[in-house]
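ingest -> validate -> predict -> emit
validate: passed (alphabet ok, no gaps, 580 aa)
predict: started
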Amino acid sequence: MTFEGAGFESVTFEGAASFASATFHFGAAFRQTTFQESAVFTSATFPGSAWFMLATFQKGVAFRSVTFRGNAEFLSATFEGKALFESATFQGNAEFRSATFQDNAWFDSATFQSGADFRLATFERKALFESATFQSGADFRSATFASNAWFESAIFQSGAGFRSATFRGSARFASTAFGGHAAFDSATFEGDVWFTSATFERDVVFWRAAFERSVSLGPLVCGGRVRLSGAVFSGPVTLSIAALRLECRRTRWLSTAALRLRYATVDFAHAVFEYPLTITAEATPFVLADGRTVAEQVLADVVDTRVRIASLRGVDAAHLVLADVDLSWCLFTGTVHLDQLRLEGTCSFDAVPSRIQWRRWRPVWFTQRRTLAEEHHWRASQRTAVRGWNVAVLGAGHVGPAQMAPVYRALRKAFEDGKNEPGAADFYYGEMEMRRHDRTGTSRAERGLLHGYWMLSGYGLRASRALGWLAAAMLITIMLLMGFGLPKGSPKQEVTGTVPPGGGKVTFEIDKADPQNPTGHRFTGERFEKALNVTLNSVVFRSSGQDLTTAGTYIEMTSRVTEPALLGLAVLAVRNRVKR
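emit:
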């Protein structure tokens, strides 16, 4: 059947209408046409445009294997029965804006070579787009899916827009491939959501989307950003995502959530969650239920698979669990209940600059410890900063020691509650450093005391520093004793007695001469041995019993106070590093 030009505008077909295998040259116009019975266009060809605006299909209509070489316009059309478009090919624009599908709509294996416009369309029953191919942009903006919407194995080679769409049934995008930008911002998902094995070559946006039931996003792979900022999850959530970046700023989690991630840098600033939320880094690719490994070709050029947390500012961390993530870039200032944060597995932090650095003419080196990204930014911004501190910390802002000290204190408690004393010691060191440099909340006297504590033993955490000062104190004590503290010889006892006239009882008085300062060789081997004996006894708070000059007595008294204290600081530092 061939039509050179077909015009059926405002026509009513009271019986069945069959245009199977028909060819409509020079366009076909079915504007405001009413099909009261079934309409069949199976295998028909429309070389020109096909106009079905405001058409009404009261029974089923079949467009199986139809080829639309021009534009296919179904604007505001009404499909009261089943709409069958399986394997149809739309070479021109497919316009279904404001169309209403009251029964099932089948677009399985359909091919849209140009734009597909389903804006404001309403699907009252199932919308089936399984294995459909959208070679150009697909726009489902503000569409309503009252029942299930299945896009399994569909291919969106260009952009896909579902902005403000409403999914009242289950939304299935399993094994769907998105070659361009995918937008689900402000969409509402009232049923279950499935994105198992979906692939996004570019960004996917769920900004301000609402998920009212359980959600299973993934395992999915995204070559760009997954943007969940402002989204609301009302039901349990499982996110298995391999992406370059995951943005969850001001996202609300109203039920339990588990995030299993690969590659991603996560921004969690000001997120709100009322139930336990776990972020876990996966070391190996995701595995599906059937044992197949999720392909990650879009991330093949990414070498580093670590999961990094970029920000936790404004988050209440009381229910947050982090496992095997990299926190070296994480911004913690402004986090609430940070002391209740749980860190599982291997969670790494940034470190101080390695190797010896030079500050003008003198060398500077730092003992390795865990540090905050904010401390890197603050130290790198100082006038006397050395190389190695990272000034390019994104979003750090104007944060100083007064703001960082409470953060270090809270993280110290979190590590202590996790029975990780060595890790807690690093954050105690950081807290003391911030107090020592804080010129607003710490008085000058307290800063001086902290400075001395830092110099002597690194706040009781650097055994090598305390032992170094102990060795120096012992050496000074030995030198002073050899020079001034040891007498030139051991004083001998003297006996003095008086014999009464005529005999009788004799009384003797035994005394010892005062030790005399040496006048000859003071630094001899014998004197060194004696000085060493006195000094070693002083370290353990004992008296050697050695005869000393007056100066030596005071030298020994001083050493018996300072050297045991330094030894105690060294022992304390070792204990803090090995305690569990």
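Residues 351-442 form one domain.
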